[in-house]
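Field reference: "sequence" (input) and "structure" (output). Example, D-2-hydroxyacid dehydrogenase:
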Amino acid sequence: MSGTPETSLPSTLHQALAALLGPSGLLTDTTDTAAFCTDWRALYHGRCAAVLRPASTEECAKAVALCHAHGVPMVPQGGNTSMVGGATPDDSGRAVVISTTRMKRVHSIDHADLTMTVDAGVTLKAAQDAAAAEGLFLPLSISSEGSADIGGVLATNAGGNNTVRYGNARELALGLEAVLPDGNVLNLMRRLRKDNTGYALRQLLIGAEGTLGIITRAVIQLQPAPRARETALCAVDSAAGALELFSAFRKQDPAAVVAFEFMSGTSMALVNRFIEGAGLPLSEPAPAYALVELSSPRAGDGLRSLMEDVLGEALESGLVSDAVLAESETQRNALWMLREEHAEAQKRAGASVKNDVSVPLAAIPTLITEATAACEALIPGIRVAPFGHIGDGNIHFNLVQPEQMDAAAFSARDHDIMDTVAEIVRRLGGSFSAEHGVGQLKTYMMPSWRGGAELESMRRIKNALDPQGLMNPGKIFPAA
């Protein structure tokens, strides 16, 4: 059964876009556009006049220029995995969604430079696989890597599991190409480690959440493929214990630590309850867990001895009560599944409020202790389920509705919950958004957290590049 267009594009614009993009590149039927108008968490349900699916930078630039000339708002969208509604149109039906999912080419991999050049629509997993096929390694890794694409990863400056060693997406991008809000193409595809010639415009686009333009291609730094890797899941009594264990590994060999993840007992219990195939490979449940991974490009690098030495001392001192080491790639993947499925498990458990926050490492135990008490006092029975990247100070301090509470009633308290956590984060010198961005979920926080000269500078940059406010409106900036 055919749907109907949500709204009509101006006829001249519709004809021009149809001629430019073809039938697979211009979607107006609501049956076809619906999936592009709702975010992964189903928090936002918008409408759009059409979905544009350019297959190249040239098509994207021409489409943007046409929309700009007609004053039509544009919402860039990649894999649509945003946690903060950053790629969802509003409910006016005026905007078009510009999806990069047809731009899927891996252009080249350079072994001398250790770089790959890819289109924005290549998924992170596909880029990882392309690098691996050449004996190289793309170190950025996030839970949604099978759906999230390179353009979106860069637009949000994604972090993920390996930030502690390799940095965020920002540190991995050498070059960018982007279509600006008026349709001009900004070519910054220089594969240079040193290029001190004025403003670093690529860094301005990275993390801008599509408000300054649409990233269409990128040059990404690679690494030699790991030839030795050790992974272990450890039971600890608290976040403080996990942090102490992290310090023990760093003292032995900081270069070996590629990932160090924290999981609360509550959050792990949800994974074991709601995710098929999940199973805790320890003797009994623990109050908290740490997942540690070491790696090296050198075979026989003594990583097993390092892992066993640190864990042996931790077990002897009581810092770790139990631990399991992966003996195969299958076992490693099973351990990582326990970490990667936390967001999905919480989604299946009911309504949740996600606080993607960061604090200095030493403040992590205080954050978890104080925010847990504050949220439990705010809503009795709330399930406090924090997890995340303890190695770089980024904790996903997530709260799941009480078992007997209505989901809608719980979701209606989202600002109360977010503000309760945020005030503790502020006092500890942290940030209210570590790696998910601002999107439309957290725009109301910007004036108090980033107000004054900082927010005003952002507005001036936005107005200079997008004076009509057409590119991803309603994101990052609070309503004036």
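The chain is about 35% helix and 20% strand.
The first strand starts at residue 26 and ends at 27.
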